[in-house]
Every structure is written in C-alpha cells, then in structure tokens.
Design brief:
The complex is a heterodimer of chains A (513) and B (807). Chain A is mostly helical. Chain A has helices at residues 2-30, 34-61, 68-94, 101-120, 124-142, 149-180, 185-191, 199-215, 223-226, 233-243, 246-253, 255-260, 262-283, 289-309, 313-332, 337-345, 356-374, 380-397, 406-432, 443-464, 470-477, 482-488. Chain B is globular and about 90 Å long. The chains are: A mainly alpha (513), B alpha/beta (807).
Chain lengths: 513, 807
C-alpha cells in the first residue's frame, strides 16, 4: 500500500510538470506586456526543474529500485525541464524588444508541456496525443515571423510531415489497443514478452517506426529541420535538443514492440543508417554554422534510431541525453563562432592524410565485429560500442605521430580519456536499462551497421588524402538532393501568396504614368 | 585571383570597372570596421546619389515622413530650423508647405526592374519562391561556399575563379532543382566559360542601350549588394597589398548571366523585353521624379541637423572654469564612447587632463601573437601596416614552443570533434558534460575569453607583453616624435601619462569586433597602447627624442590602459614597472578611475534598461558586468549609436561640457601646428574614419534592409567569420543589426550627417580643401557639415560648397 501510494503521488508530482508548463503557456499569451510574462515563464521553468529533480531524487531514495521505463521517463523529464530553464533564461534578453516575445513564450511552454507529458505518461494514447501537441507548439514557434517567406515554407513542410506522423501514430495506437487490450506502457512491457506478434502488432510496430522516422527528422523528410533557421536561435535549440529526440524516447517506451518486429528494425536501420552516413558527410560541406549543426542533428538522430533498432536501448538513452545537451549548447552558443574562428586562425589546423596502415588496421578490426557477433562472441550492444569506438579512433590517432612530441602525449591522454568515459557511461547505463536489453540483433543487422561505418571511414580517408570530386562535393552538400526532390512534389510547394507581405516596405513595381 | 576578364568589345571594360568601383568594401566579422556604403558616390551631391540609388535599387537615404513629423510635433525641429534650411539649400517654398508635405502618403521608391523581376511578374504557375529571391539565394549560397575558408572542411576548389566555378556548379547540379530547371539547364549549357565573353554576349543579346549600361550594371551589383561588398573588400585589401582581385567582376558576370538565362528571348513590340527596355530608357526622368519627390524630405533632414548644431554651438559657448595644471594626462581614442568617461574623470579630479587622439596612437603596426602565424592589422582599414609587433617576455622562445604544442593538440581535438566518423562517440562520451557548460553560461559564471591568448598558460599570459622588436632607437624616436607632435604633447608632461585604448566585452556576439576600436581595425587598443608606452618609457628612445626637441622629464611615466566600454572600467597594464616614486600617484589614480567609472555607469544606466539601479553603484556595476558576460544579451552596449559630431579643438574648449557621448573629440591646437600638417592629417584620416562610422550608422537606420544586418536573433554566421546571413538564405548582410540601433521601443541612433567642427583659421581649412579632393567632395556634396569654431566667440561658422557662410 505504501509503495503504491508513493508511486501514485510521485507520478502525480511528475505530471504536475506538464500541467505547470501548459498553464504558464496559456497565461503568457493573455498578459499584456512581455516583462511579467517573462517572469512567469522563468518562474515556471525554474519550478519545473526543481520538481523534476525532486521526483528523480525521491524515487531514487524510495524503497524499491525503479523500473527501467521509469528511469528513462524521469531522466527525460529532468532533461526537458533543464532545457526549458536554460532556453527561457537565454531567450529573455535575446528577444528583448521583439514583437513576437509572448508568442515565443507560449510556443515554448506548450512544446515543453507536450514533451514533458511524453516523458512521464504511462498511457499510450496520451503519449501519442502529447507527441502531437509538441508539433503544435513547434508550429507556433516556426511561424514567429510570418512575413518571412522562408519561415512559412519551412512551417508548411513541417505541418505536412507532422500531420502524416499524427496519422501513423494514431493508427498504431489503435492497433496496439485492439491487439493487446491495454494502453498502459508498464503493463504492456511486462506482459507482452510472451505474446507472439500478430499481423496487427507488426503493422503497429512498422507504423510507430515510421512515426519516429518522420518526427526525428530523418531522411527523406529532413528538409524542414534544415530550414528552421528562419526562426530565432532559441527555437532551433529547443527543436534540436528537446523535440526531435522524443522519437527515441517513444521507441524506448515500446521497446518490446520494436524488439519483436524485424520489419520495424530493418526500416529503422535503413532509414537511420542512410541518414547517418549521408548527413554526417553533408555536415562537413556546409558553409554556415546553423545548417551545419542541423545536418549534424540529422546524423545523430539517425544513429540514435539505429541503436534503437539494434536493441541497444541504454546507448540510445545515453545518446538522447548527450546529444540534447551538446546540441543545445552548440546552437545557443552559435554566435561565438567568430571568436572560435579567430583562435583557429592563430594556427592552421593540420589535417594530414591518415596513414594507410592505421586505416587498414581499423578496417580489419571493424570487419571482425560482425564475424565475432556471428560466432556468438560479442553481444549486440558490445558490437555497436566496438564499432563506433573503432571508427572514432581514426581521427584521434592521426595525432599520435612521434614527431609532435608533447602534442602526441596530449592526444594519447585524450584518447584514453575518451575511451575511459565511454566505458564509464556504458557501465552506468547498462544496468539501469537491463530489462530492455534482452533482445539480440541479428548478425545481418550488425553487418549493415559495419558496412555503413566502414564506408564512412573509407570516405574520411579518401577526403584526407587530398583527392577531390567536384560533383560528389556538390551532391553531398545538398544531401544527395533528396530534399529538393521532396520539394518538387505537389502538395509541398506552397505558393508565394501564402506568405504575408513584409511589414517593412521593400520594392514595388511603379505604376506606368 | 585570376586576371581581369578580356572583353571583345573594349568599351565594356571601363563600364564594368566603374560599376565594380561603385560598391564600397566590407571587412570580415573578426576585423569588423565601419564603412560608408556610399563612399564611391561621394563625388556627386547627396540628393542626386539618393535619387540614383533609389532608381537602381529602391533604397532610400531618408527617414519616412512620419519620423520628421514626430520631431516637428515634439518641437525638436522648429520653424527657425526649417527657414534656415530653406535658405541654406536655396530651395523655394515656406515652412508651412514643408509641414503639409509630411502629411502626404509616403511613396516607396520603386527600382527599375531587372529581368529577374520581370520574369517573376510573369511567372505562371506561381512558384514557391519568386525569381529575384531564387537568383539571390543561388548566388549567395554559391558565394558562401566559394569564399568559405573556415567552416566547411570539404569545400569548393577555388583555382578556376568565381565565374567558372559558378558555371560548373550550375551545370553539374544533378538534383531536380527547386527552380524551373528544365529550360534553364538547356540555356545554361550555352553559357560561355569566362566572364569576358559572357559580358560581350549577354550585353549584346539583351540589347541594352549603351548610355544605360553603367546604370544597369550597377543595378545588378546592387541586387546582390552583400556579396558585392565582400568582393569589393577583397579587391580593396588586395590592392592595398599591391596586387588585385577580380572576384567582383566575376560576381557581376554571374548576375548578368542570370539575367541572360531568365530572358525569354521574345523581341516583338509587345514582348516583356520591349516594355522593360522602355522603362530603362526612361531612367533620367525616373531619377528626376525621385529627386523632386525627396527634395522636401532633404530639407527636413537638413533642419534636423541644424537643430543639433544649434544645441552643440550652445554647449561650446558655455563658460567653463580654467583648467588646473594636470597631475595626470590621459590620451583616449576619439571614439564617442570616450567622451562620457573623460567627462567623468575630469569632473572627479580637476587635475586630470584628458586628450583625444586616434585609437591606434599613430602606430602603423600589425600584431602577431607569439608563436603563431596570424598577423592582425592594428590600424585603420584605410591604411596598410608598416611595422610588426609581437610578444616579448622572459623566455619567448620556450613560450612559443609550448604554445605551438598546445595549439597543435587543440587542432587535433578539433578534428575529432568535427569528423563525420567521431561525432557519435563525442556525443556518447562528452555529451552529458555539456550540462555543466550550460549551467555555467546560464548563471553567468565564467568570463569571456580573449581569442588572441589561446594556447597560452596562465603564467605566460601574465608575463608576455607586446613590443615592437628590432627597431633601432633612432627610428623609434622618429616614430615617437611624430606621434607626440600629432598628439600635441611635446612639452608640459604630467608625471603620469595614460595611453588609454578601448575595447568592448560581450559574449556570443558575431559583431563583437564592431564594438571594439575601429581605428585598430576591429581589435581592442591594448596592443597599441602597451607598445607605445613601452617605447616612450625606453631610456634610449627618450635620449634620442632630445634630437627632435622633445624633452620628456625623468619623473614622467607612460602607462598603458584599456577602457572597457561595456562596463565602463579602466584597467591599467604593467603596473609592476611603475617607479616607486610614483606609487602614491598610482594609488590615487586607481581611486579616481573607480569613482569616474561609477559616474559613467550611472550615466549609461537608463539606456541599458537599468535605470532602477542608478542610485546603487555597486549593484549597477554588478549588473553591467553580468550583461557583458550574458550569452543571450543582444544589446551589451550601444557602441557608437547616436554619434553626431566631430570636434578638433583644444581640450579646454570642450572640457566639462555634457556632449552626451555623441561627439568624436580630437585634441588640436592650431597655434602649435606648423604648416597645418596636423590639421591636414586630421582632416584626411580621423575625420574620414568618423565619417565612415557616421554614415554606416546612418545607412543602417534609414535602410536596414539594404545596408543593415537585420534581426540579430536570426543571424547565422557564414564561413566561420565572413559575415552573417539572416535565417536560412538570402544575401550576405552588411552594416549594423537592428538591435544595435533600436531598443525595442525607440530608435537609439538619430540619423544625422556628421557635423565636423575644426578650431582652425579659415584660410588653412580652405587650403586643405583645395588640395585634398576627397575632403573637398565630402564637403561640397553635402555628405557632412563642416564648421570652423571661432577662437573668441566659439561660434560655429559653416563652410559649404559656396564658401564660408555668415549668419
């Protein structure tokens, strides 16, 4: 009885966070001046962060250890609340004097409410609705400057993808409810381990995977993510750090469904994997900081969904959290780019060719991974761990040339630190997510991931060797023209007349006298 | 880059060059200095230039009528001002008619259309993006990729030159395209490979009449003014270094190529081409209409400037107490922000004398941080560096070696951070630690880093100091003598002389260099101040100075200082070197600086929204410091907003007057000026720099869309340090962002042309005007107002194109 009461009151406490955000969001729209609205928004975000912290601490010190899903939910709630606090405090002076301040605040608070609800809720239907609600908040944020045609085009694209995702999510939830008779995530996660996958459930898994692919901004519907720079920087920060990764969280909450559906796994692997490879390369060909960061997000989201597909849920959660914090900082600090360029000018960076021996060794090690997995010597998550570690070592180890002296020592220490940290996080997250990690990916799936990473490693070697291809550079900088193709489809072309005329008069055709 | 284009028709070349020369240069963000965007048009009257630019690009050089109406209604512009303005410009009419004009509806100047605009008007079905926007986006995206040398690790090759690379890019674009690519790609194949052939071909086929060509070419460049200004900057800096750069010619060719591509080829009497040609034929009458339309508003603008000049004259004629013998002399930059702290210092301590001089202290140096390869100019953009300064310390070679190692390690780390294959590991190992960084930034902890000190350890940072190495004492003394003479500081030295450079402090600000010292090419004045102080304290140099008849007393010590314009603090450098005899003076100086700083902060409080803390100096200081470190703050300080005048006069003529931080103050005493050399120097260098700053602010206010950077909240840094674009695409933005001019409720910069007031005899000024064409153009064509200050009455006597005006 005690523990049930604790559980209920704790989850009530947790649910107060989205409620707090929603109330604050509505109130900020009604106030007459932006200053009191900012005070309200900042107070609400501060309180939300404290509540999220309290929930995590209280649950942690309570009697029984929390379930894996609860941990994931609490971690995500804390993350969302933290991001909300940081972004609202950043945005108050940033948007001072703008006419869109209150619309910004209400948009952010509604988005945060939706995201927080996705994190804490136990009901699948509520989850899907909250997920859609974040899309609505985001729509408001993308249209803060309705006179900018670029903003309206991006908002329109987002609208179409979001509605598509709404439909697939809805159908998926209906199917799950019909097949299992329950909408409670906890119940479903414990009971369905033994239930075989019917066609309905397979369909549901596939649709949910599609929803995640659309909502995480993976290719081919990644265009709108690249074009949200038409909204102020804090909106980009919120989108890339708080909203896009909800896809990974949702999949984690229905891990049992994904673990059992080979079709959904392969869909995620192909969409995620190709996005990872293409976006990671497109990223280094961009000439402005925000689009570069956007491509980086696409690659990271693709990779997160690949980790989900392979059943490495603890890595997916780690990735979700790590990426959020990294991207939020990168976007908010994007104005510092010039200062970094000044420091970089002091010393031209050395990007020498990677030694073929090194590349060969890493390749061989990478190719060993699926072999070892097939022989049963390596677990799925271990395989993923090994792969990304090996590939990441390539740029690190290029610094280990003896003639660089102290720099080589420094690089060696850095490599050791990176490896050590990776092991540390693995050791922390794996036991926390243990119940979810019983799924073992197939060797074919590991082989696919290996192939992608080997391709990226080879590409990096080719790039560093100084060879050039104009057409390839052009094609990859545009993400292989996928977004252009999507743009040319009917229904996504939004005619000019949709955008309102700019307030500052521009040029008009003079009437013939 | 490549050689200038060869033209089959020799007459096209000069016209192309003329159009290219008409675009003013810009500097990259890391050395952002203010440039007058109308600089190349200074040889024509401002009203004519306004009409021409309005006809060619739709820009305006005046505020909307509502602005002048507000000034009329609030009484800032009075009837008397209007009458004098009418008299001065020789226009007919009376003040009542002028007031009526303000009530007429405002007409936006409409530019003569380019073919892109014509294509847009006839496009069916309506595309998602208009043709002019598509053209601009395509060119801008390509230029960003071409000129980027810092952001993309996998960038474009530049050997072919801009035009050839653009053409290749257009042809090899394999995607379906967001444009009407089918037909376009066919025509694009017929594009010639070099710019020269394109000019000949396109201009012939488009059939533009010869007499309209210069205007048409300029209109094309103005269509992509941002990138054109960037290319003009490349050419300016190349020519300064002795070579040349023809990117701007290629850029014009690219824009012309688009015109050619969008031409539908129809040439009948009812075709759009015929209609278009007719409009261009009517350019002169179009310009005249615009000029007539703007005439009344120019008078209003003149009247608003007269209102300010009357105020200024009144201030100058105020009586002021005679100055005491100074115990401390401080040389400040002429920057308008110095005026506030100078007044605070002089009010705090009557024995404190401040002087104004160019912020680079006359040192034509570039600065190379120790152990690095990057040399940065520390002098106005108009000039080229002649000497190099680097860091000196106890063990410079060892420090350089250590620095190289650290920077190499940092470079390797950067590769790890940004390589496609390691970004996943980065996130999964270091990602969570960014929470700490986010917390620190949000709470405002941690200071802003000086990028020039990257790679140095703490002890090295404190011990290294900039110095001009390898300069013989005689040469150094010659340099020093010239500087001291120009400063007017050749006798009566105080015991402490402060050389105060200035710099700003802001976080997460792409335009940070724009808030630093323009005279030091967008850097802080620290290096120049410290180098000069070291030079002037050198006993060998002081010995050699005697030969130039400058005797610096034994007890005089020069000290370098830096004025932080954001927090109104003054920091002293190298205080350990001060002789013991001067220690008590130094302590008193610290106190004076602290008190004056508090006074200056109180004056700034209201404009920064901190009026509530005006009476609480400690809290105000803390708040302003926090603002300077706040990474979300888009208005850390107001920079040179509201600048209005330039005064070159003896110090006591302006001492103690509240000039509200709007005036560039340069010390000048004509009685000490042999052959008026210093006056000539002032009129051709500092005055022109002040004019550039004034015009940049002016242009950014009257037309922020063309000559300003737009909304800071949407800024996106291109090429790591080249410039910003607003949002996702569009042209490169030049000039100042709106947040630097407007506080959300009201305009913080009043657009006034610079009022230059010189305390010099009329004949001297006339002589310089006759022999310096640039200065003459600025005055005669109404780009600035020139006055002399009468020695006795301190009245302002105007000099315009017709000579000295009386009354």
């Amino acid at each position: 009885m005690e523990t049930v009461m604790d559980g209920l009151s704790l989850s009530a406490l947790a649910c107060s966070v989205p409620a707090l955000y929603l109330v604050a969001g509505l109130a900020s729209m009604l106030l007459h001046r932006p200053e009191p609205a900012w005070q309200l928004a900042r107070a609400a975000s501060g309180a939300a962060m404290l509540i999220a912290l309290a929930v995590a601490v209280l649950r942690g010190v309570a009697g029984s250890p929390p379930a894996a899903l609860q941990i994931a939910g609490m971690a995500a709630l804390l993350l969302i609340a933290f991001l909300g606090w940081v972004i609202l405090r950043f945005a108050a002076p940033y948007l001072a004097g703008e006419s869109c301040q209150q619309r910004f605040m209400s948009g952010v608070l509604i988005t945060l409410a939706g995201a927080a609800l996705v994190s804490v809720t136990d009901n699948l239907a509520v989850l899907a609705l909250a997920w859609s609600a974040t899309g609505l908040g985001l729509q408001r944020l993308l249209t803060l400057y309705p006179t900018r045609p670029g903003a309206m085009r991006a908002a329109h694209k987002h609208f179409v993808s979001a509605r598509l995702a709404d439909v697939t999510a809805l159908v998926s939830v209906v199917l799950i409810a019909r097949e299992t008779g329950s909408l409670s995530l906890v119940t479903l996660s414990t009971q369905t381990a033994d239930v075989p996958m019917s066609t309905g459930l397979s369909m549901a898994a596939l649709l949910l995977a599609i929803t995640a692919i659309i909502r995480c901004g993976l290719m081919p519907l990644h265009g709108w993510v690249l074009q949200v720079m038409e909204a102020p920087t804090p909106v980009s920060a919120l989108l890339h750090a708080g909203v896009l990764n909800l896809g990974g969280l949702v999949l984690l909450k229905v891990f049992w469904l994904i673990n059992q559906s080979l079709a959904a796994q392969w869909l995620l692997l192909i969409a995620g994997g190709l996005t990872t490879a293409i976006a990671a390369v497109a990223m280094i060909a961009q000439s402005n900081i925000k689009v570069r960061l956007a491509w980086s997000t696409c690659a990271q989201m693709g990779f997160m969904l690949v980790e989900c597909a392979l059943g490495a849920w603890h890595l997916a959660l780690l990735h979700l959290i790590g990426h959020s914090l990294y991207k939020a900082f990168a976007f908010l600090n994007a104005g510092d780019r010039v200062t970094r360029a000044r420091s970089a000018q002091l010393f031209p960076s050395t990007s020498g060719a990677m030694s073929p021996v090194l590349v060969g060794l890493l390749l061989a090690a990478a190719l060993l991974v699926p072999v070892l997995h097939g022989l049963g010597r390596l677990h799925g998550s271990g395989a993923v761990f090994a792969l990304i570690g090996l590939i990441a070592l390539a740029p690190l180890l290029t610094g280990m040339r003896p003639r660089f002296g102290r720099a080589a020592l420094h690089t060696g220490m850095t490599t050791a630190m990176v490896v050590g940290l990776a092991v540390l996080w693995h050791l922390i997250f794996e036991p926390l997510m243990a119940p979810l990690l019983e799924h073992e990916p197939t060797t074919g799936q590991i082989a696919w991931l290996t192939a992608l990473f080997v391709a990226m490693l080879l590409f990096q070697g080719w790039l560093r060797s100084g060879l050039r291809s104009r057409r390839l550079q052009q094609a990859l900088a545009e993400g292989l023209y996928v977004d252009e193709f999507i743009d040319s489809l009917p229904g996504l072309r939004r005619p000019l007349s949709g955008a309102r005329q700019p307030a500052t008069p521009v040029f008009q055709e003079q009437e013939r006298t | 880059m490549n050689d200038s284009a060869d033209y089959a028709d020799a007459t096209i070349g000069p016209m192309v060059e003329a159009a290219c020369d008409a675009i003013a240069p810009i500097w990259p963000l890391d050395s952002f200095i203010a440039v007058n965007p109308y600089w190349s048009h200074r040889d024509r009257p401002v009203s004519q230039v306004a009409a021409r630019l309005a006809a060619l690009s739709g820009t305006t050089l005046l505020m909307p009528p509502a602005y002048y109406r507000e000034h009329w209604q609030s009484g800032r512009i009075g009837r008397g001002h209007l009458e004098r303005a009418l008299k001065a410009t020789g226009a007919s009419g009376d003040p009542d008619r002028l007031v009526e004009v303000l009530d007429e509806p405002a007409i936006q100047p409409a530019a003569l259309p380019t073919l892109a605009r014509v294509a847009a008007a006839h496009a069916a079905p309506e595309p998602a993006q208009s043709w002019p926007d598509q053209v601009r986006d395509q060119i801008s995206g390509f230029c960003a990729a071409f000129f980027d040398d810092a952001e993309a690790e996998w960038g474009l090759e530049r050997e072919q030159g801009l035009f050839a690379a653009w053409r290749a890019d257009l042809l090899s674009h394999a995607g379906p395209g967001r444009r009407d690519n089918g037909r376009l790609r066919e025509s694009a194949r017929a594009l010639p490979e070099d710019a020269g052939t394109l000019f000949t071909k396109a201009l012939a086929e488009l059939g533009i009449p010869r007499e309209r060509l210069p205007a048409y070419l300029l209109a094309l460049l103005l269509d992509i003014n941002g990138w054109a200004s960037w290319c003009a900057g490349l050419r300016w800096r190349a020519r300064q270094a002795g070579s040349d750069d023809s990117c701007i010619v290629d850029l014009l060719a690219i824009r012309l190529a688009w015109e050619w591509l969008l031409d539908d080829g129809e040439r009948g009497p009812d075709s759009r081409h015929a209609d278009w040609l007719e409009r261009w034929q009517a350019l002169p009458s179009h310009e005249q209409t615009l000029q007539a339309h703007f005439e009344a508003l120019w008078i209003w603008q003149y009247a608003s400037e007269l209102a300010y000049q009357a105020q200024l004259e009144e201030l100058l004629q105020q009586p002021a107490p005679a100055p005491a013998a100074p115990s401390v002399q401080a040389i400040f930059c002429i920057d308008v922000r110095s005026e506030v702290i100078r007044r605070a210092l002089e009010n705090t301590d009557p024995a404190f004398e401040t002087r104004g001089f160019a912020g680079f202290f006359g040192l034509p140096i570039q600065y190379r941080p120790l152990g690095t390869d990057a040399a940065r100019a520390q002098l106005p953009g108009l000039l080229a560096p002649a000497l190099e300064a680097t860091d000196d310390g106890s063990a410079p070679a060892a420090a350089a070696e250590h620095r190289r190692e650290r920077l190499t390690a940092a470079a390797h780390w950067k590769q790890f951070e940004y390589a496609p294959t390691s970004i996943f590991t980065l996130v999964e190992t270091l990602g969570p630690f960014y929470a700490g960084k986010l917390i620190r930034r949000t709470l405002g902890l941690g200071d802003t880093e000086n990028p020039d000190k990257a790679g140095l350890g703490r002890r090295e940072r404190d011990s290294l100091r900039p110095a001009l190495n390898g300069l013989a004492p005689e040469k150094a003394a010659e340099l020093a003598a010239g500087i001291l003479t120009a400063m007017g500081l050749t006798t009566d030295f105080a015991s402490l002389v402060l050389l105060t450079g200035h710099g700003s402090q802001s976080a997460n600000n792409p335009h940070a260099a724009g808030l630093d010292c323009g005279a030091c090419c967008g850097q802080t004045g620290e290096v120049n101040a410290r180098v000069l102080a070291r030079l002037l304290n050198d006993p060998a140099v002081r010995e050699s100075l005697r030969a130039h008849d400058i005797h610096v007393p034994e007890g005089t010590w020069f000290m370098a200082a830096l004025h932080n314009t954001t927090t109104e603090e003054i920091a002293l450098f190298d205080t350990d070197d001060v002789p013991d005899t001067l220690r008590p003076r130094l302590d008193a100086l610290h106190k004076t600086l602290a008190t004056a700083g508090a006074r200056a902060r109180a004056e700034r409080a209201t404009s920064l929204g901190l009026a509530a803390l005006k009476e609480k100096p400690a809290a105000l200081h803390k708040a302003m410091r926090r603002r300077a470190r706040d990474w979300g703050q888009v208005r850390p300080e107001w920079g040179l907003a509201n600048n209005a005048a330039f005064i070159a006069a003896p110090g006591h003529w302006t001492r103690g007057r509240d000039l509200a931080g709007r005036v560039f103050l340069h010390n000048y005493d004509w009685t000490q000026d042999k052959d008026f050399q210093t006056l000539r120097q002032i009129m051709t260098a500092p005055m022109v720099v002040a004019h550039w700053i004034n015009m940049q602010y002016y242009a950014s206010v009257v037309d922020n869309h063309c000559y300003g950077s737009g909304n800071k909240a949407l800024h996106n840094v291109v090429g790591g340090h080249l410039g910003v674009i607003e949002g996702n695409g569009g042209d490169l933005r030049i000039g100042l962002p709106w947040q630097s001019l407007h506080d959300g409720e009201k305009l913080m910069h009043e657009p006034l042309r610079l009022s230059v007031c010189l305390a010099a005899p009329a004949h001297a000024i006339d002589q310089i005007l006759e022999t310096e064409p640039t200065v003459h153009d600025l005055v005669a064509n109404g780009w600035l107002h020139l006055f002399r200050i009468d020695d006795d009455s301190r009245a302002l006597i105007r000099r315009d194109a017709n000579g000295w005006q009386v009354g």
